[in-house]
Each structure stands twice: as C-alpha cells, then as structure tokens.
Amino acid sequence: MNFIDLQRQYKEYKNEIDLAIQNVLNSSRYVFGQEINTLEKTLADYCGVNYAIACSSGTDALMLALMALGLKQGDEIITTPFTFIASAEIPALLGLKPVFVDIDEKTYNINPELIESAITDKTKAIIAVDIFGQAAEFEEIEKIAEKYGLFVIEDAAQSFGAEHKNKNTCSFGDLSITSFFPAKPLGCYGDGGMVFTDDTDYAEKMVSFRNHGQGAKYEHKYIGINARLDSIQAAILLEKFKHYEIEIDLRQQKAEYYIDNLKDFVTTPYIKDYNKSVYAQFSIYSENRQGIINSFTKDNIPFAIHYPVPLHLQPCFEYLGYKKGAFPVAEKISSGILSLPMFAHINEREQSLVIDSVIKGIKK
Ligand SMILES: *Cc1c(COP(=O)(O)O)cnc(C)c1O
User: Fold this and answer.
1) What was the pLDDT predicted at 363?
2) Which of 6, 237, 286, 323 has its CA 20 to 30 A from that of 185?
3) What is d(CA 73, CA 91) in angstroms, rounded to the nearest whole number?
4) How far apart are CA 269 and CA 109, in angstroms?
C-alpha cells in the first residue's frame, strides 16, 4: 500500500497524459507554451476569480503574492503555527516578521478569535491556511482585516477545489495561492503552483515578477525572479483537471468511510457544515498515537505526521523568541496528529486494513 498512490492515478489517465506530454514535446514550447494560458483561464474560471498566474511552486506563489503587496522589511504577518513551513518561511525570507496565532481545536485552522490580540501597528497581512484541505474562517478573518486595514492571503496549497460557504477556495482574501506538488490534491509531475486574484494591478505585477520583472523582452520593469511553470506541467494539469471533480467526490466517499469506521476510536476530521474539504490529508488525532504507529509499523501501513513540530518551536524560528506553551492547541494537536493513506483511488480493502490497524493500535 502507498500513502498516496500516484502510480495508480497515472495508470488511470495514462493515454491522455502521455499524449498531452507528447504534444508539448512536438511543439518544443517548453516554457510559456499555450498550455500555460489555457490552464490559467481554466482554473481562474473554476475558482471564480479574474486572474490565475501559473508559477513554479506553491512556495514561489507565496513569494509572488507577498511581493505584489509591496510589503516592507519589518512588517508583521499573522499566520498559524500549525502548517507547512512555507507559509511562514517566505515572509521571513522577505524580511517580514511572522507572528503566530493559535489554532481552533476542532478544524486546526487559525482561530479568528485570537487574531485581534496579535495585531500591532506593524501588522500588514494575515496569511490564513486551509489546513488539510478545509477552508479557514474567511468571513471572520476578512472582517478583522477590514477593521485594521490588513491584507489577507489565502494559503490554499492544500485546498484547491474545496468549498466554503458556496464559494470555491482560491477565491478568498486579496490573493490566494495553491500548490501542484505531486502529493497535493491536484498535483502535477514535478513542482508547480498558482496565484489567484481579482486585482488587475497585482496580476500585472505577478505576471512580470515570475519572469524576471520583464515587461517587454529584456526590459525589466521590476526586480523579479524566475518562477515560471513548465508547459509540460501545465499540460499534465489540464488532463488531470478533467477528472478532478470526480476525484473530489471519491475523496469525500473515502473520507466518510474512514470517519464512519474510526470515529468511535479516535478524533476524525471535523468539517464545518458550510465547508467541503478536499482532504489533502486525512488526519486523525489520538493521545495514543504511538500505539497506532506501532500497529502500522507491524502491519506495513504507510503514514505521515503533519506536523510533528509547530512552526514556533522550529529551530529556524528560534529568533522570534516563542517558548513551549505559547500555542497550547497547536502543540497538543502536533503531539497526537497522524495522517492515514488517502487518495481518490484508494480501495475499500486498503482502507479496511488501515482501519483495523488503527483500532488494534489504540487498544494496546
Ligand atoms: C505544500 C504547501 C506549500 C508549498 O507548496 P510547494 O508547491 O511545495 O512549494 C505552502 N503552504 C502549504 C500550507 C502547503 O501545504
């Protein structure tokens, strides 16, 4: 069994994906081929935003987004300590100061009730992460942002295709970013990402930033970077996207099966009734995580821990001065969270093996 079986997915769509790759090879437009434009239009429409800008990764998407907002050294960014490193790493790399706010005990997303007390006169933006594929509380977050004149960035790296109050993710805040890393719900065959916005000025800047700040060729309007997406990745994504709605439905079914069979033994994902998660991770929480891990190891079941150490306790952020105990909920969840094998094409036999092993582990 695989934690995410990318091979099985590839075999499902092999003919069309091979053909799409072959088309790019035949065109030899490896960079900025027509697939890039088509992908941007297709995904902007899907998310209900004006602009989608393809780029080289979710991490670079965050970089482009923060650059577009024109934030300055020393500006403070509020975000969650319970996320992948990129959400705070890129602000820090740009000289911005990450300020963490604890998470909600049930959804594991940033707790909007705690945001206001973290705001100072240096705060410029909130990066809200849709953790494990479920949207953060954008109505409340946007209200706070409006009150204090802050930007909002939606880190939807894990939630492309999810829904929140009848809107698709990648449409909240001033800018949204996503990732097409292979293990994300919609993954390409290498690195890839995208930024979404309704704002013409941000879009124009990010299109330029991702290609060395060029306007016309060799005319550099801005200081930029190379953050382009390859045509081959765009071609793969276009083919995979055709199946994505069905995959999202499959993910709901697989998640429900896990939840029905595990909810009496461990804490299963809590999805608010106005949200639809894409389950980038199916993560359970248990105070006896080690028991489950021992059982998995014995039964050869792959697993992952997202995330074992919250960001405020990472060595790279020691300079921020946070101590253990600063964010009790994030720390507690980190100590008991465990991600199970999850992908659209996982079958019932595999899920049953996982479920049996969890239950065995919990009882020891
Ligand atoms: C994966 C991820 C990123 C970064 O995406 P990459 O494409 O891997 O660079 C950023 N934020 C979150 C929350 C992620 O899970």
Assistant:
1) 84
2) 286
3) 9
4) 12
- In sequence order, the 6+-apart residues with CB closer than 8 A to the CB of 333 are 82, 103, 105, 108, 285
Kindly give the distance from the C-alpha atom of residue 361 to the centroid of ligand 1, in angstroms, as a whole number: 31
pLDDT digits (tens, 9 = 90+) for 15-60: 999 999 999 999 999 999 999 999 999 999 999 999 999 999 999 9
Q: What is the pLDDT of residue 244?
A: 98
Distance CA 121, CA 116 (A): 12
**Beta pairing partners, 110:** 103
Q: Which atom of ligand 1 is nearest to the CA of 130?
A: 13
pLDDT mean over 336-344: 98
Rounded to an integer, what distance in angstroms lies between the CA atom of residue 338 and that of residue 108? 13
Distance 15 CA to ligand 1 centre (A): 29
Instruction: Please state the pTM of the whole predicted model.
Output: 0.98
> For ligand 1, atom 6, which residue shows the shortest CA distance?
58
Answer for the pair 133, 279: CB distance below 8 angstroms, yes or no.
yes
175 neighbors 147 (Cβ within 8 angstroms):
no
- The residue type found at 107 is T
What is the full DSSP assignment across 215-272?
SSTT-BSS---B-PPBHHHHHHHHHHHTTHHHHHHHHHHHHHHHHHHHTTTSBPP---
Phi, psi (rounded to 5 degrees) for 237: -65, -40
- Indicate the residue type of 280: A
Tokens coding 183: 């293990």
